[in-house]
Amino acid sequence: MKTTANESSASSPRVPEPTLRRLPWYLSYVQLLHADGCESVSSTRIAQAVGVDPSLVAKDLSYVSVDGRTRVGYRVADMVAVLNNFLGFTHLHRACLFGVGSLGAALLQDSGLIHFGLEIVAGFDVDTERVNTNINGIPVYHNSQAADICAREQVEIGILAVPIRSAQSVADEMIAAGIKAIWNFTPWRISAPEGVVVQNTSMYAHLAVMFNRMKSLP
Amino acid sequence: MKTTANESSASSPRVPEPTLRRLPWYLSYVQLLHADGCESVSSTRIAQAVGVDPSLVAKDLSYVSVDGRTRVGYRVADMVAVLNNFLGFTHLHRACLFGVGSLGAALLQDSGLIHFGLEIVAGFDVDTERVNTNINGIPVYHNSQAADICAREQVEIGILAVPIRSAQSVADEMIAAGIKAIWNFTPWRISAPEGVVVQNTSMYAHLAVMFNRMKSLP
């Protein structure tokens, strides 16, 4: 019998998004401790360093299989390894980027993403001046080649950085090419069928929040 | 008598963050309508296009001074102008970027931010190989020059893209240099005094959420 999405989520509880957003804070802190040769840490100390309530730290860490011992605390080296693995940063996920404009080209130039489990293997664009170039060693192809290349390169993730007018149609092309997740950098609201993950990272929405909060400053 | 932060927030209601994050979706949609020569639009049509409940669209738009008329709907051209202005995209905010590594250099290369009200006027780093260069026409200085240059250039925003070990200390330097808001791209939890806005955009946290959701796919 095939396991359905519901069954698999029943067996491993869905981790709340706020927890997933806080775990990288804890990881950053224990990485520094580890580099400094520190061997164990309590959840209280993590809580203090990160500015999160201790009970919340303990709850967040309960989703992760990291052993804590009363009085001794968590082993730092274990925690670095377990958190990195849990967050998916140790497993390389293959991605393609669609839209090699200003933001898209910038993302291709960020070699740091690979340390967090994201390997961008190709870029796609429709502009003939961009097609058949490469940026930071990553080849740029025409959109029409996406299905072939995504299949050949076993790409799981599509990064969307196209102009808003093409955002939905390019997302549809990605899905047709067998992509499992869309990392959406456009300010366009993408609609996708169930079974495709959409992660929005709209820098412009974040700018809007920041600008608005600045207006309330005395 | 000096107006305090509390008084100013009492006179203009604080816009909820989810609203501020959805408004750019509506703006994107009406921008396309405007480019296509469409003159008016109903909140129902926006809701349908963006995939948000119509009552939520109406509520979100109630924070923005945009005139809607029964049956006629909103005037598209007005809405583009009013939303752009409300979100702060029409006013240039001067920013400096700290940490010209892989991500930082990529952000300097993204010329698109200026269309959303963010003008990066300088970069700062401590690496002598990066200092006194320029990226995309933006000069890179040594961190020690930050206070002088931020004052001279009337910089309001500091973009933080340094390694986690220096994240808090560089944030402290920014604040000492008179910066009003920190756009934090590091996975480090920054602490800042009241009166300084901190906007987190951790791409790594977003990757973690996306990777985790992908694991639950059938």
UniProtKB/TrEMBL annotation, chains A, B:
Give the subcellular location: Cytoplasm
Q: Which InterPro entries match?
A: CoA-bd, NAD(P)-bd_dom_sf, Rex_DNA-bd_C_dom, Tscrpt_rep_Rex, WH-like_DNA-bd_sf, WH_DNA-bd_sf
User: What UniProt keywords are attached to this protein's entry?
Assistant: Cytoplasm, DNA-binding, NAD, Repressor, Transcription, Transcription regulation
Organism of origin is Porphyromonas loveana
Enumerate the spans annotated as CoA-binding domain. 88-189
Q: Which gene encodes it?
A: rex
* Record feature DNA-binding region, as residue ranges: 25-64
List the signal peptide residues: none
Q: Which domain of life is it from?
A: Bacteria
Organism ancestry? Bacteria, Pseudomonadati, Bacteroidota, Bacteroidia, Bacteroidales
Q: Which PANTHER family match?
A: REDOX-SENSING TRANSCRIPTIONAL REPRESSOR REX (PTHR35786), REDOX-SENSING TRANSCRIPTIONAL REPRESSOR REX 1 (PTHR35786:SF1)
Among Pfam families, the record links this protein to: CoA_binding, Put_DNA-bind_N
Keyword Iron-sulfur found: no
Q: What does this protein do?
A: Modulates transcription in response to changes in cellular NADH/NAD(+) redox state.
Instruction: Kindly list the GO CC terms recorded for this protein.
Output: cytoplasm
Q: Its Gene Ontology molecular function terms?
A: DNA binding; DNA-binding transcription factor activity
Instruction: State the Gene Ontology BP annotations.
Output: negative regulation of DNA-templated transcription; response to redox state
Q: In which residues is NAD(+) bound?
A: G99, V100, G101, S102, L103, G104
The UniProt family comment states:
Belongs to the transcriptional regulatory Rex family.
What is the protein name given in its UniProt record?
Redox-sensing transcriptional repressor Rex
Under the subunit heading, UniProt states: Homodimer.
